[in-house]
Design goal:
mainly beta; 1 helix; MM0924_fam
Length: 58
Amino acid sequence: MQSFIVEHLLGEVVDVYCGGPDVFNGKVEACADDVLTLENKGKYTHITIDKIIAIWRT
């Protein structure tokens, strides 16, 4: 998953679904050490890659 994100989604605005009500939105800033970093309005969200169920461009 990490290589897919780096190769295809780096710099893109995405939604990330982690189950239940957990959907995160932001620009993919980085993906390293099994952690995805999203930026949204100057705030950063860090998501453990193994918790991601689905990810898509918005």
